[in-house]
Design brief:
- This protein is α/β, with parallel strands linked by helices.
- Among the domains are: about 170 residues, Ribonuclease Inhibitor (Leucine-rich repeat, LRR (right-handed beta-alpha superhelix)); about 100 residues, Phosphorylase Kinase, domain 1 (2-Layer Sandwich), CATH 3.30.200; about 200 residues, Transferase(Phosphotransferase) domain 1 (Transferase(Phosphotransferase), domain 1, Orthogonal Bundle).
- The strands form 7 sheets. It has a 12-stranded parallel sheet, with no helix packed on it. It has a 5-stranded parallel sheet with strand order 14-16-18-20-21, with no helix packed on it. Strands 22-23-24-26-25 form a 5-stranded antiparallel sheet, with helices on both faces.
- A hairpin with a 2-residue loop joins strand 23 and strand 24.
């Protein structure tokens, strides 16, 4: 059997093995058969000693329509990149880095409208960056480091609004850095090191407010360092070393409070090192060696940890003996003592002012939003290491709509790709909606300790004053609503029964298997997610309620979805476990009839519940989903099917009775469904 026979294959990960296939030999080439796999979305073959050239067939057949990720890093692939690769119309991420590819970057890549990540680093590619890449309106990551590329970078490249990370280091690019780069306020990482760029740094560099990394090391840049660089308040890493820069170190660099790495070595920079840099408490690396600096080396704050080699090659520097420089001359003991006093007192005054300001801002924020204190107290307890806002932007292509997999009133869910084998879902809360913050609070509180195979797993969170997100396990098969009501999806009877047993098991755990009693309050098909094995997971606990043994009924103003809401919940807001049982009953009916509770056929006179009740039990087969009926099945099989379906609809009617105390509990529901499954399998 070849891989091409796996027609429904969606993800294939062969990475980090010892595959030695020669792609140039027909008997070893395994990519062409994969063109038969119409559903293949992810293909990972990276870090294998594969050799040969990429076959032109990679852009043909069914593969061309559905493949989203092709990861073939470090596979010893030779030759050129076939232009047929541009036929992969759904391609989001292409990584061919670390191979032995030569020739140009195909201009046809400009037609890949869904393209978001392109990595061709560490090859032997030649020529220039094609202008056609400027057509990639969703591109946010490009890595062409360590090639033999040359010429000018297209001016239009910086106009790609989605672009966030640009790595073009160790090539032979020439001329000026495109002015459009300095005008793009959303670029986060820009690495142009070890090229042949000329010109000066413009004042417009201050526009790059989102910049985290700026590496221009090893070029031929001249002129001064503009003071506007101090406006890059998010900057973490700045390297301008080995250029021809002149003039002083701007005092404004002291504004870069996030700065950890600063390298200005091997230039012609003059003047003194600003004492204000002592306030950069996060600074871990500071190198100004081999310049023309004079004056005293700061010796407080981060400078306590810096060693002499960071300052060598500057004959005019003086300071503490540990820097291996001459001692500074003091004018008079009186003035020297004054300076020492001021240097001791001013930081204390500054710290007091900053501390007071933080307290005032915090108290104001707390008064506007009392839940802020309690928010962090429980999220930190159960979450893994927090993920940053910028990591989320990177993994979702800046929350690109192409990554959107769901949207609701209080937030949106995005597919996030951190690596080819690390794909998650990220729920971003819309904080413009009043209920969103409370919903985030509830989901964190509910999910912090519960563990069940049929509940959506929350991995970690991202939380600050103006951004809230939950990182969850990605469910590649979407939700139950899609499988029930999309024309191109189908679930057989056994699959539907398994899904409803999974949901019953999840709700049973919430009601009876956890230390606190949890009521979901919004059970519906779109909140039932399906993993790669079609196992169901209940999610979205945004309006869930935690009850205690002494408080089995509470009242709420947050009602669920119309059609799934129990009568007592909708009229009085009373919440008990019976609310979930009712919603489950409606879900049970919808799953096997494919009718929504708000279908146009229903009205005040004919509800979904009364429709089933009128057919039960004698005419029950009239309401079953017609797709489940097979005219060719035998009488015994049909009789068994009818018996099981009748039992399921009978259970659904019990779950949806008007009086909450007459509804069964979820333990009983789960047991009865499992018995029905056993009976169904006996035929």
């Amino acid at each position: 059997m070849t891989l091409g026979n796996l027609r429904e294959l969606q993800h294939l990960n062969l990475g980090l093995n010892w595959l030695t296939n020669d792609l140039s030999k027909p008997d070893q080439e395994f990519l062409t058969p994969l063109t038969n796999c119409k559903d293949l979305q992810v293909l990972v073959i990276g870090f294998n000693p594969i050799t040969g050239e990429l076959p032109k067939s990679i852009g043909s057949g069914n593969l061309s329509a559905g493949l989203q990720i092709l990861y073939a890093r470090s596979c010893r692939i030779k030759g050129t990149i076939p232009s047929e690769t541009s036929n992969l119309s759904s391609l989001i991420w292409l990584d061919l880095g670390g191979n032995e590819l030569r020739g140009p970057i195909p201009a046809a890549f400009g037609g890949l409208r869904s393209f978001q990540k392109l990595s061709l680093s560490q090859n032997q590619l030649q020529g220039s960056i094609p202008n056609s890449l400027c057509n990639l309106k969703s591109l946010y990551f490009v890595n062409l480091t360590k090639n033999k590329l040359s010429g000018k970078i297209p001016e239009c490249f910086g106009n790609i609004a989605s672009l966030r990370e640009i790595y073009l280091a160790e090539n032979a690019f020439t001329a000026n850095i495109p002015s459009t780069f300095w005008l793009n306020s959303d670029i986060q990482n820009l690495d142009l090191s070890k090229n042949l760029f000329e010109g000066s740094l413009p004042l417009q560099i201050g526009n790059m407010k989102s910049m985290l990394l700026l590496n221009l090391y090893g070029n031929q840049l001249s002129g001064g360092i503009p003071s506007s660089i101090g406006q890059l308040v998010n900057l973490v890493n700045l390297s301008l070393s080995e250029n021809k820069l002149q003039g002083p170190i701007p005092d404004s660099i002291a504004n870069l409070k996030s700065l950890k790495y600063l390298d200005l070595s091997c230039n012609n920079i003059s003047g003194s090192i600003p004492m204000s840099l002592e306030t950069l408490i996060l600074l871990e690396y500071f190198n100004v060696s081999f310049n023309k600096l004079t004056g005293e080396i700061p010796d407080r704050g981060p400078f306590i940890n810096f060693t002499p080699e960071f300052f060598k090659g500057n004959k005019g520097l003086c300071g503490a003996s540990r820097f291996n420089v001459k001692a500074c001359k003091r004018n008079t003991p009186k003035s020297s003592s004054k300076i020492r006093i001021l240097r001791g007192v001013l930081p204390a005054i500054f710290a007091t002012i900053v501390g007071t300001s933080i307290i005032i801002l915090f108290l104001r924020a707390r008064s506007r939003n009392p839940s802020l204190l309690s928010l962090s107290s429980f999220t930190v307890d159960f979450m893994h290491a927090r993920i940053s806002y910028y990591e989320i932007l990177r993994a979702t292509s800046n929350l690109n709509t192409g990554n959107l997999i769901g949207r609701g009133h209080i937030g949106s869910v995005y597919k996030a790709i951190f690596s080819p084998t690390s794909i998650v879902a990220i729920k971003v809360f819309n904080l413009d909606v009043q209920a969103a913050l409370k919903s985030f609070d509830i989901e964190c509180r509910v999910m912090r300790n519960i563990r069940h195979r049929n509940l959506v797993k929350i991995i970690t969170s991202c939380s600050n004053l103006d951004f809230k997100a939950l990182v969850m396990k990605y469910m590649p098969n979407g939700n139950l609503d899609k499988w029930l009501h999309s024309s191109n999806c189908f679930l057989n009877f056994g699959q539907r029964l398994d899904i409803m047993i999974d949901v019953a098991s999840a709700i049973e755990y919430l009601h009876h298997g956890y230390s606190s009693l949890i009521v979901h309050c919004d059970l519906k098909p779109s909140n039932v997610l399906l993993d790669e094995d079609m196992v169901a997971h209940v999610g979205d606990f945004g309006i869930a309620k935690l009850l205690t043994e002494d408080q089995l009924i509470v009242q709420t103003k947050n009602l669920g979805t119309i059609g799934y809401v129990a009568p007592e919940f909708g009229s009085t807001g009373l919440v008990s476990t019976a609310v979930d049982v009712y919603s489950y009953g409606i879900l049970l009916i919808e799953t096997f009839t494919r009718k929504k509770p708000m279908d146009e056929m229903f009205s005040a006179e004919l509800t979904m519940k009364s429709w089933v009740s009128e057919s039960y039990p004698n005419s029950i087969m009239q309401i079953v989903d017609a797709n489940l009926l097979d005219a060719n099945i035998g009488e015994d099989v049909r009789a068994n099917f009818q018996r099981c379906f009748t039992l399921i609809m009978g259970l659904a009617l019990e779950c949806t009775t008007d009086l909450p105390e007459e509804r069964p509990n979820m333990k009983d529901v789960a047991v009865r469904l499992k018995k029905i499954k056993i009976e169904q399998q006996e035929q």
